[in-house]
Design goal:
The complex is a heterotetramer, with 2 copies of chain A (204 residues) and 2 copies of chain B (332 residues). With 204 residues, chain A is mainly alpha-helical. Chain A has helices at residues 8-24, 26-36, 41-53, 61-75, 79-95, 106-121, 130-141, 146-164, 178-182, 187-200, and strands at residues 5-7, 100-102. Chain B has 332 residues and is α/β, with parallel strands linked by helices. In chain B, α2 crosses α3 (107-124) and α4 (153-166) packs antiparallel against α5. Classes of the chains: A mainly alpha (204), B alpha/beta (332). Bound molecules: adenosine-5'-diphosphate (ADP) (2 copies) and magnesium ion (MG) (4 copies).
Chain lengths: 204, 332, 332, 204
């Protein structure tokens, strides 16, 4: 992050970090998903970010985010992949025509992604999905200084997991296993935390 | 892994290659993982597409053909196709009169098909509509019926919607008939042993010797009880009781019934079940029309069976009986 | 026992009850364990009967229908029907032009069918002939080909003999065509897991996890080797190699091929095999006509597959493609 | 046996003894058959004789034997049942029109049954089947006094089993298991011995 603007190269560097980080935890995420679903979440996330990281990005940050969306759509057809693609696309629309994202617009971008993903997946906040993580992060970023954002996002992603401990999943495959799902982390929320951790792994 | 394959990664693509090679009179694969009618889209006819994970033959690809569907996108085993593949299937099905997306209510499929619809509307100016199958009565209570998953009821919906499209009705009309067929279906399943998803390499669930699970889904989604295996009549009775609790049948009603194997359960045992099904509906005074007994929607080598009913009125019955042909079901 | 049934003793009779109830347009059960065409014998047409143990649906009863067989006697699971039942099937099939007995070469069936022939000749003055299927290439060497057991080749023989009879040819002519079809068939099987005969209540054989047996018979008769499971292409190659060693195919030859599941093996995996089958015969310069891929001759829930070839000349191909209809196979 | 004539009532009594005797060894015979075949031989033999024993027999000994053949045909469709029915039928034809079987014709009757069964099953002597037992018994009865016949038959049936020890079955299902079958008794020969033992169990 060059000061309070996130440019194409920042995005590319971030994608590389996340691709690396999620690659390292793919097995963990597959296992978490396997408890309640089909066990493909680690593959979905790591393949999606790897594809995005290897895609040449245009300078227009909106178009760059659109390429990320397309990359996810290409390699993944699992729910999480489609949702991430949807989120990238919403951010892309909002940022189109600019060379960088002003950090103070980040809360709105995350919020836009959250809203688009809710519309796409017909999910609600409180269903114990990745939507809750996004919502928490969007809220946590609000009014924060650029240098405090990463830490706030991390806290918010962690707290979301803690907050939903003991509550059943109400959406996706995991919905079928209400009892079992209550005792487990939602794999999508866990994946989101790992993504944020990877983002934070090297100060940008 | 007791499966005949070369490699898990090539399972679906080699399957599709053999599939189109065996039935070139019905199927073509214009793009990877997209199956279309051998003759292509029919000009002026509403197109019907479906899609979903592999591992359910003859669902989904098998029901492409005259009087049935126009194209289909197919994913890895038990995994959604991508939105791109779905968009491509929609383009293949388009004969200029719009395209109906007719498929089962699974989160991933819905998201991808919605996205695909947005794509073709933007890029190709194709008008699309959606009808979701949500026929599994045990997957959600009646109050949340729209959350139910779609199972073998698809077979009836494909047939009936396909017949409606064949009359050259417009998109709204085909969509109406498809929705009516979908709404008339009720299904329930039971399983005795799992199947193996090639890429996972292990069973989708575990179930004890001598045990069964009532209400299990076609991907091994948990059912409503698991206990020791009951006699065929007791199993069939409970399945019918649960269906008619959701959609009663009475004197003079007409319906069709599909007694379907999940794969390994042999025809012999489906007929033992059908014998009871027929007696039960006869007791209610309802008449079964064109019963289907066989493997119409499977989960590879899973052991178990599903029962689907569709309540018929004159319109649905006419479409059900209209001529149609695919490699697995021919109505003449 | 992972089977859906009420009691082992009633398995076959309840199955037949459901079978005729589901397909009344094709099948009737005029006597216990005897299935005949719904419309009865066709006057002046040569009748064709078959018979054998239950547990192989659609074989045997399923192939009764116009363009196929006229009647069938069916025994307990994997057990011969009695001579009395066979005699009764012959009487059902008799339209006054004599009856061909067309069935698989199993000792018990042969003895009973011979006895049945003597009975109807004595009591009813019905002239009968016999054609035995003996298509399993690994069950005896070429020099003793008449000792081979009959497996899925029956499907082709039923279709072709049925078409010949439909032309109103006389008994000798229908018998000649049936024998020619039988002689043109070669089959081989492989198995991955056993099935359970209801009355025995346990698996017909044991086979280790990750193992396969090449050449196994449809009742679990031992094959030629047992080893760890090979890739689909290697399995298919060996099966084809063994078939063509017995009956070579070359440039310009025409044949049909049946890739058949023993029950549990899913269509997906049959198509993976067919893909290879097609490539192999293309390499030989031979052309596959009307390939069949599916469950045409099963052993209930056994896992495994068989491959059958039938070398075609103009006469056999014409009969193969002639219209015919039963609940499992319709040629239009 | 009333002296040197076997009448309808002797036959009925003999059928009862064999029905009882084979009923008692049905499990043994099923197990023997299960080693090489489908394990139904005990059922076949015991059901067949039970049905014959419960069938009213006419006085004409030939017609009585025909009823035995029919009884077997009714209840059993396994190879052994068909063969036994065939044997009874051959004997029936030879004895038709008489009120009893002269014991000195017994070797010929057994021989006639053997020949009919060979024709029916297309088997040869030496194939290690029940045919070999019948052939040995037919030979052993030749020229024997009525009172010595039972013992000779028993010896012959026993010796047949001993003689074929180590030799492979060449007919029926067991043919498929050449190696294994060599180390085992042929179930049909064993069943035949048990039948003769049951016949001998009470002096007629
Ligand atoms: N409709 C939805 N709306 C929001 N989040 C969802 C939805 N469906 C699934 N998720 C999230 O995605 C995660 C599972 O993703 P994934 O493994 O890709 O799903 P699947 O393999 O079932 O398609 C869940 O843990 C949940 O957080
Ligand atoms: N063709 C034949 N000729 C003579 N004996 C035979 C023949 N086939 C079988 N047997 C005898 O019958 C015995 C098996 O009988 P059974 O169990 O009834 O056969 P299956 O159940 O295979 O029809 C064999 O051990 C053998 O002695
Ligand atoms: Mg998943
Ligand atoms: Mg998935
Ligand atoms: Mg036997
Ligand atoms: Mg038998």
């Amino acid at each position: 992050m060059a000061g309070d603007m996130i440019g194409r190269d920042d995005l590319a560097a971030a994608l590389l970090r996340v691709a690396e980080g999620t690659g390292a935890v793919a097995a963990e995420l597959n296992a978490a998903d396997g408890q309640l679903g089909d066990g493909d979440l680690g593959i979905t996330v790591s393949k999606g970010f790897a594809e995005a990281a290897h895609t040449p990005l245009p300078e227009d940050i909106g178009m760059a985010l659109l390429e990320c969306a397309k990359a996810f759509q290409r390699v993944s057809s699992s729910s999480y992949g489609t949702l991430v693609a949807t989120g990238f696309m919403a951010a892309a629309k909002a940022a189109k025509g600019q060379l960088g994202i002003a950090t103070d617009t980040l809360p709105d971008l995350v919020g836009a992604a959250r809203d688009a993903m809710m519309a796409r997946g017909k999910g609600n906040l409180g269903d114990k999905t990745v939507l809750d993580s996004l919502d928490a992060v969007a809220g946590a970023l609000q009014g924060k200084q650029p240098e405090a954002m990463m830490a706030s996002a991390l806290d918010a992603a962690r707290e979301t997991l803690a907050e939903f401990k003991g509550r059943p999943c109400k959406l996706g495959r995991a919905r079928m296993f209400a009892e079992k799902s209550a005792s487990l982390d939602d794999p999508g929320q866990l994946a989101f935390l790992r993504i944020v951790e990877a983002l934070a792994s090297r100060p940008a | 892994m007791k499966k005949i394959l070369n490699s898990p990664a090539s399972y679906v693509d080699e399957m599709l290659e053999g599939f189109t090679a065996a039935h070139p009179e019905f199927y073509a694969q214009p793009e990877r993982r997209v199956i279309a009618r051998a003759g292509g889209a029919v000009k002026g006819k509403v197109g019907i597409v479906t899609g979903g994970g592999s591992g359910h033959l003859p669902i989904f690809t098998g029901y492409v053909g005259p009087g049935f569907l126009d194209a289909c996108a197919i994913g890895d085993v038990f995994a959604s196709p991508s939105a791109e593949q779905m968009a491509s299937a929609i383009r293949q099905a388009d004969g200029g009169a719009g395209v109906l997306r007719l498929y089962g209510n699974y989160g991933g499929d819905v998201m991808n098909f919605d996205m695909a619809g947005e794509m073709v509307e933007m890029e190709n100016d194709i008008r699309t509509t959606t009808v979701l199958l949500a026929d599994d009565v045990v997957s959600a209570p009646k109050e949340e019926a729209e959350k139910r998953r779609g199972v073998a009821g698809m077979v009836y919906a494909f047939k009936i919607a396909g017949a409606a499209a064949e009359t050259m009705a417009d998109l709204d009309e085909v969509t109406r008939v498809a929705q009516k067929a979908a709404d008339a279906c009720r299904s329930i399943g039971m399983a005795l042993s799992p199947c193996i998803v090639p890429q996972a390499g292990k069973a989708t669930f575990e179930i004890g010797e001598g045990e069964m699970e009532m209400g299990m889904g076609i991907h091994g989604e948990p059912g409503i009880w698991r206990d020791k295996l009951k006699p065929a009549d007791a199993i069939t009775d409970e399945m019918i009781d649960r269906i008619v609790a959701d959609h009663p049948f009475g004197k003079g009603d007409r319906l069709s019934v599909l007694v379907n194997s999940l794969g390994a359960t042999p025809l012999e045992e489906l007929y033992i079940m059908y014998r009871r099904v027929k007696a039960r509906f006869a007791d209610m005074g309802a008449e079964i029309v064109m019963p289907l007994v066989g493997r119409y929607a499977t989960s590879m080598e899973m052991t178990g069976a599903t029962i689907t009913t569709i309540a018929l009125d004159g319109e649905l019955e006419t479409h059900l009986k209209a001529p149609a042909a695919c490699a697995y079901w021919r109505v003449v």
